[in-house]
Queue: 4 jobs
Job 1
Amino acid sequence: MPAPEPRETARVTSAEVARHSGVSRTTVSYVLNGAPNQSISEATKRRVLDTAERLGYTPYAAARALRSGRSDVVLFLTPEWPIGAAIARLVEDLTLALATAGLTLVMHAHPRSARPIADLWKAINPAAVINHQALSEDEANVVRRSGITVLTPAFAFAGGGTFADFQSGIGHRQVEHLAAAGHRRLGFALPDDDRLAAFAQPRLNGARQACAELGLSEPVTRVTALNAVSSGRAVAYWRRLKSEITGICAYNDEVALAVLAGMRAQGLNAPGDFAVIGVDDIPAGALTSPALTTVATGMSELGKYLAISVINVLEGAAPPPGPGPEAIQVISRDTV
């Protein structure tokens, strides 16, 4: 009489896989961990793997970490950033790409008031840490000294390869596109969330640099919340200026949509009264009327690049070059 199947509420063990396969626990361990140089027939390997799948066996992560010396977790650290559409897209593609190599992504946006971030990586003991503006160089070196790989996203820009260089390139492209459409006096709509300063300030710096290169005045900035009342005040301010502003660079697509709402509340339209360009190419931007012109920032490609970088470094190879200016693409629609 066959042994009863294990209950769904209990973790299936390698001993149960061995019993149902008719082999030893050692053989199961060799097969499930892919141990090299073992004289185990293909038929036995297939029987063990099929049995493990049928029973729903999953390796116990803590035990696997003890055997291999590291976990299969990749820790993605960011500051306390809001998780908008762009970051979500990056995380989705990073997760999928790492999964193909048997690695699991854990993302942590570290709150300013939380306990020291060292407590987190010490508890998880990850295979690698992707440090996206969360750790100082001194903190990153402490992690490295513990034997954990730390990667910082790199970008291939002529002026430098930092996160700020990449963000600056986004603001630069916004101004270039508006100027090419004939707009000579510009506004810049900033977010009202100070947690986004690491993105917003470099984008504004890039817009200012582009204006200087093109012989334009600096963009006139206004802080804009995500509602028509706040954005309406910004729109009214830009309209009152003696030097007529005709184009608006918005920090991102959400801020751009707020600007469009503020314009509608005052009976204005884009691009007739103001041309508007956002950032991130979120789905809602293509569905609004008029459809939003935006800058795509290659977040999907960045996620895949980070995954390949982690996999290469863990296997002893060099990471590939980071994304360059070609990742920043204007999606031209109806608001410019």
Job 2
Amino acid sequence: MDVRVASVTLTFAEAMPTAWGTLKARELLLLRIRDSDGVVGWGEAGALEPYDGVSTEQVRAALEAYEPILRDGDDATGSEILARCRVVDGLPQALAAVDLALWDRAGNREGHPVADLLSDNPSGSVRVNATIAATDRAQAASQAARAVGEGYSCVKVKVGIGDDAGRVAAVRAAIGNDTELRLDANGAWGVDEAVRSIEALAPAGLELVEEPVHGVEQIRAVRDRVAVRVAMDETAGQPGSLTAKVADAVCLKVSRCGGISGLLAQAALVRATGADVYVSSTFDGPIGIAAAIHCAAALKPDGACGLGTLGLFADELTVLPVHEGAIEVPDSPGLGV
């Protein structure tokens, strides 16, 4: 196979504040494979060092190490190629790029969307939440009201970054009582602080609080002490976390799971414990978001997915638009972007 790797940088329209830092731009690595029959597959690697501790340089090195395997992969199955790459370097973010490219190639070869390869009856659209980026309560309320006006049924507010009580109250007032309100702390709190904060914010009416603390035992301690549903995000990358039964829901991400194949396998583990799953992104690009949309179409989660993030970039991205709070699953072959 012919193998190419390229870098692309997307700029946020507004700086994105989180508990672990403020993002102004997003660097991604794109992988393109083309087999001897001319069938192409595209993949994306979205390492985000402040979030997952993995640098773009680490991913680039892993992709370079995979190149000989990919170049000799015309006669191998996708699972064989992925297994060989995993032996060389098991970095999930790099494996995700390979996995996505293989699924995209498979869909392009078969003439079917990836969702049709994953499920006999995938959803035609995926409900997504709006992400409120503003740290000022007035701006946050304005963004939230606009999101509801555009048809979103769920909004997510980052907390642990300042005037949480003011912003959450302002957002709830702006969206009314019929819209779901989700909070994301990115592990900013300790256990006692998380309990106090959640109890203080709960009167606003919360769908769930995502990653209030880091660590399996810490999440268990918070969940045991609050009446609000608690979701696991970053902690889901820790060994044993998916079957620990410490959260009401688990947020799964294509990059952290090592691709579509890994995400579906992890979703099965989580659901076996009785917890819900939903799919989100680490501010991925169009290829990563498309892959996650196909996964969500196959999984059909009850909760909104955190995939309506392409609109946060200043770049003119016209693919996968959000309409009435949902993204249509691409119906063209492969990933569809």
Job 3
Amino acid sequence: MRTIILALIVLSLTSALSAQNVVVGTQSLGGTIAQSAAPPFTMIDLSHPATADGSVASASVRWAAGSCTAAFKLKFLRPASPSSLTTFTLVAERGPFNAVAGRNQLVLTPPVDVHAGDLIAVTSLGTFAACGSPATLIDSGGALMRISGDVSTGSFNGFYTRDRSLGARATDTTEVLEGVVTAAGSLAGNFGSFFRTSIQIASPGGGTSSGTLVFHPAGVAASPIDQAIPYTATSGNAISFTDIVQQMGKTGLGTIDVISNNGFPPIVTARIYNDTPNGTSGFTEEMITPRDALHFGDTGVLLTPPDLTKFRVNIGVRTFSSPATINVQYGFRSQSNMDFPANTFRQYSLAEFGDASPLANEQIILSMISGDAIVYLSTTDNQTNDSSVRFARRN
């Protein structure tokens, strides 16, 4: 029976696994902040544009306080140019929608066609005293513009707020790829080690988070029949899996998609550990969101350890819905382009990653020629099997 249930869960996720979601806006985990401006006003999220061309049919809007009928409209705006922050074309609007404090899940009828770069906005309609206001979120790198009144098409001058995002997101499906536990496994390693992966999941924002964890084995493209397991976490507590890959009935190395289908995006933390009779040693691995991956034009840097005889090194690469090409440069010695298939994960030795004679204390410079990818370097002590990981972040 368990196999049948899991098969049904996996089949229901075919759309989420076949391509990266089209997402406009964010449901960032930052604290909710109310707006004090008198409605009507419009909040435009400048920092989370549509990730791809597509059609969005589902939306979620966080409301800071109050409840009201016909409280807001959801709008989609197209900047006059990628660098424009003042001139927009109204692509579509939906609503008015009713609002209650917390998360408001919406169906967009009909769905809205968006282009990569389009922005999401919420127009608050009712009086502040009766209806409250949409929520904004603490978000490092975020940028908001607040405009008095409703908006349609034209040039807008508004009040800018830095490090803040609008708590509104529209997607092509209710099953959203929130992030990736890039490397996960249950397998024997070198020098008598055995590595496992534990995961903790929590729900922020005073609500419930539910969805599915999907395990994709290393070296092959993600498939709709890959093993999955559901999760549900309630506010104030966390759920945990001590050996998530084994609990899915699998072994070996792979990568895990964290997919949500209801509630707030979950907080997910993994631990990769060497399991021995005398205890464990390992490192914490945070979930990486698609937004935090390396994208076209980005550059990231990894560092080889100070001693390559005492430590062994691996480099992992996880791609998304399109193939990726990365220029890899080892210090000032050599460089080459490496191609990676879409929707795959693989872990390489330094020699397999293009350097047959690696050096200690050397920079590995990664330049994204095309596609999107998460890249990490793991270092493991040959004597104790203690390990650590560093992810390449955009410079």
Job 4
Amino acid sequence: MKVLIQQLRGDRVIWLVVFFLSVFSLLAVYSSTGTLAYKYQQGNTEYYLLKHLSILILGLLLMYGAHLIDYRYYSRISQLLLYASVPLLIITYFTGTELNEARRWITLPVINLSFQTSDLAKLALIMFLARVLSKKQQIIYDFKNAFLPVILPVLIICVLIAPANLSTSLMLFATSILIMFIGRVRLMHIAATIGIMITALSLMLLLIMMTPDKGRVGTWKSRIEGYMNDNQEPYQVTQSKIAIAKGGLLGKGPGNSHQRNFLPHPYSDFIYAIIIEEYGLLGGAFVLFLYLLLFFRTIKIMVKSPNAFGSLLAVGLGISLTIQAIINMAVAVNLVPVTGQTLPLVSMGGTSLFFTSIGVGIILSVSRYNEECKKVGDKVKPNLLAKK
């Protein structure tokens, strides 16, 4: 164990957060997939546990590998990934695998592996924003030469994601705005962008409410109406509230969830409700604390980073993970409409967990570089963000 710990570079607190979230993930997934096992695996309750364990281990290996790579290489990698994301999103929209009236997945030939192209695009865009903003610091207030090269990729990626996954598109846009704010983009430009976005979103919501209940429009409409009207509350939200109420302060204990038999997707979208039912409000608060601690550590990494790219890369990925986690937990307690967002590093999943692991690995890579610079007293380009 000591030898293993010595191999882990970067922020040890983040590694500890990942460990605790992984433990919660295994316990909650094993508990919440019982019904699924009896329905599809003839009662083999260990099947989904072992499957999730293998995915989790592979994700941790990807995290470890990503943290060993000098984060400065991710600047060039972000370009390649962003250029690949645009055609992949277009292909997914027209020919992707359809589920629940949405095409979010694309299946790779030969290996027959499906993944959400929006996960790749989200990671690529955040990395690319960090690259562009860091290179434009000297002219960051220039609209044509600085702001347009930043906002155009954001709009293109978010628009391509929106038809199949509106919640992910809005979250990515909000994350991008925060990264631009930290990257010293002129507030007037940011405010104008937010104003245009709010206007466009309001018009879109108006059209949704006036459009017949077909396809994704019907899904969006039902979620909005269910959130605004208690009499039309979605079934899964009601079951989630029941699970949280039954959990109380200390919970019913590991594996003793009752609502897992009634709650749709208790192993992914509503896994937080299962955690509270089994581990109580204290367990739920501890999970929330872990994500906030992860975000706090990324801010600390940002402050210590000797250059702008490392700062923006770490905090951008940290913001993305934290927002997704908070949205998932907010859905479980009915603070926001149902979105279908998973709980990062906890929910059962496949490639989404891989991309999340890579994102955390990149944050750790920035932290590792900071530590190495501190040890050798390396002189690097000044971090202009520190002079904000």
